Amino acid sequence: MPKKLIIDCDPGIDDAVALCLALFDPRLEILAVTAVEGNVSAAQASVNVQAVIDFLDPPRSPRLGAATPCDAPPTADMRRLHGDNGLGNLDLPLAQLHHQHPAEKIICDEVRAAPEQVTILCLGPLTNLARAFQRDPSLPLMLDHVIISGGSLRCIGNVTPAAEFNMYCDPQAARAVFRSAATRTLIPLDVGEQVKLTLDIIEQLPADTTRAGRLLRHLIPFAFRAYRQHMGLENIFLQDVVALTAALHPELFETEEMAGDVETVGELTKGATIFDRRRQPLGRSNMAVAVEADAVAVTDSILRGIAEAGRAT
Ligand code: RIB
Ligand code: CA
To answer: Using the 8-state DSSP alphabet, how is residue 259 labeled?
Structure first.
C-alpha cells in the first residue's frame, strides 16, 4: 500500500529535487503538494510548485496548495544558493496559474479525508502546518506522522550561527508545531550534512531527453556552482532529499526521543532549536530526532530515485 504523503515545500533546488523523486516513486501516493514562503516569496513558491509538477507531468496529479505570506516578513535570503527564482533561474513553461486553495486548507482537507493515514513531509518553514493546526485543532492527532526537514542539533546554523533556515524564517510556527500533539521526526542539518553529494552524481543524472533529466541537469549543476562560489565547497547538500529518504527508508536513520523547542525572540538566537538532553530533562520528549544517517545507503537511495524518475519521464 503506497504511503499517503503531503509535501509542504519552498522550492528551492533541494525541494524541487525531492519533488521530482517523490512524484515518480511507486511507494508513495502524493496527495498534495503545498507551497510555503521561505527560499522564495509566497507567490514564487506557488508558481514554482505548479511549474515543476506541470513540467514533470506525473502519472497522478497531486492537489496544489498556494502559499500565503508569512506573518513576519522573511529576513533571510537564500537566493544565492537557489537562484533568484528559486529554481536555479530555470524558466519552466507555466500555462497559467491554476486556481489554488490556501495550503492550510488543502492540508486540513486531505488529512480529514484519510484520518491517521497521512504523513506530511515539511521541507520549508512550518508556517502552513501551524496554520492548519490553528484552523483545525484536532488535526495533530489525525495525522499519522510529521517529518520535518530542518533545525540543528549540535551543528552551527546555516542562516545565523544559532539557527537553521526553515526554523529561522518562522520560529513561532516552528514552536507551535514542536509543541503540538502530532507525532513527529526531525531531520536536522547535522544529518542532512552527513550526506555529501559529489560531482560524479552529474554523470548519473537521466538523459536530457527525459523531463526529469532536463530538470535535474539544470538544478544540480547550478547547486554545485553556487556551493563552490558562495561556500567554497566542492560538494553539495540536498537537505530536503535526505528528509524525503527518511520517509522512504526510516531504517537508514538512527533517532533519539528528545524534548525539543524553538527560540522565538533571541536577538542572536531566534530560530535556534533547543533540545533538553540533560539526564533529567525538564519536559517529556516530544519528537524523534535523527542523530545519524547511513550516508552511503542514503546516497544510493537518492541515486535510485533519480534513475526511477528518469525511467518514468
Ligand atoms: O536549511 C535548509 C533548508 O532550508 C532546506 O529545506 C532548504 O530548501 C531551505 O528551505
Ligand atoms: Ca526547503
So the answer is: E
* Structural domain count of the chain: 1
Taking the C-alpha atoms of residue 57 and residue 215, their distance in angstroms, rounded to an integer, is 12
- The residue among 180 and 78 whose pLDDT is bigger is 180
Give tens-digit pLDDT for 237-289. 999 999 999 999 999 999 999 999 999 999 999 999 999 988 888 888 999 99
Rg (CA), the chain: 18
Per-residue confidence (pLDDT) for residue 96, from 0 to 100: 74
Site to probe by mutation for ligand 1, drawn from 7, 77, 78, 129 as the one with most ligand atoms within 8 Å of Cβ, is 78
Distance 279 CA to ligand 2 centre (A): 33
Assign residue 302 a region: left if phi > 0, alpha if psi is -120 to 50, beta otherwise? alpha
Give me the CATH number covering residue 36: 3.90.245.10
Segment 69-80, tens digit of pLDDT: 998 877 888 899
Considering the entire predicted model, what is its pTM?
A: 0.97
Sheet holding 3-9, edge to edge: 101-102, 63-66, 28-35, 3-9, 118-122, 145-149, 184-187, 287-293, 253-262, 273-276
Give the range of the structural domain holding residue 286, as residue numbers without chain letter: 3-312
